[in-house]
Amino acid sequence: MAKIHLIPYQVDEVEDTAAEIPQGVQMIQAPDVWEQSDEGSGNVIAVIDTGCDTNHPDLEGQIIDGKNFTNDYNSDENNYEDNNGHGTHVAGTAAAAAGEEGIAGVAPNAKLLIVKVLDGNGSGEYQWIIDGINYATDWEGPNGEKVRAISMSLGGPEDIPELYEAVKRAIDSGIPVVCAAGNQGDDRPETDEYAFPGAYNEVLQVGAINFDREIAPFSNTNNEIDVVAPGVEILSTYTDQKYARLSGTSMATPHVSGALALVISIAEEQFDRKLTEAELYAQLVKRTVPLGYPKSAEGNGLIALDILNQFEQLFQTFNTVFK
After folding, report:
1. Which of these, 62, 82, 147, 277, could form a disulfide with 87 (CB 3.0-4.6 Å)?
2. Among this protein's residues, is 49 annotated catalytic?
3. Can you give the CATH number for the domain in which 17 is found?
4. Count of structural domains within the chain
5. What is the residue range of 159's domain?
């Protein structure tokens, strides 16, 4: 059986320091709802990737648990350090702590479950991925915490039934599964490019845009794209306690898994109950803005977390009685 791989990505630059809210986090309006959502507090995001730099100052306090499913580190399941860089970058976009001297992720109060299923070369066996998804689905924290979103910036050309079953099981357990669309795009929305598990109907498949709100030329297009998020020159955490700007649908994906942590906090407080996976999907999609591209390129559009509050203010203005 073929292996599954990191969706190829581009390292644009590596930096020693960074003290800012990255542009992508701002673009999806995350800071505008931090107060309302308590920055995603109480929610756990499972990052299924190459591991994580557990000593990174922006991440060390965010990691609640983890497990290694690869052959790296002599198959030591307790060593889920990142020997690639990709997983650390994804984790930081989702939930880096908004400290004084580092960067803020989308949900700075959320916790991270690090699931290492890809080795230092960014390659993994399908069984590792399947086991990693099942681990995240069944995981329970020291205080009864459960995973509320799964983030997967990986993919392969093959539709493996066992992979589909693992994804379906997570979703049936109430966990939204967020997947990168893939970077085999040819800049033509009318031609389809598929990577699995992203292409499964049940997952939230994420395409990439740049900061000019243009679809990234590398972003896969197909009839299962759900949303788009920033994925070009994204600043986030990196190995060796550094920071890097990377490009790819891999970088767009954790913007959405982080956004889910914020949406869960807001919506479940409003409804005063736990929402189903379908309800969470609906709540997320309500917070999108179409960009004018074909649905095969942008799905429902760009994540815009504060859009409902903006609508509310607009309606209040319209409903004001002028004497």
Report:
1. 82
2. yes
3. 3.40.50.200
4. 1
5. 4-319
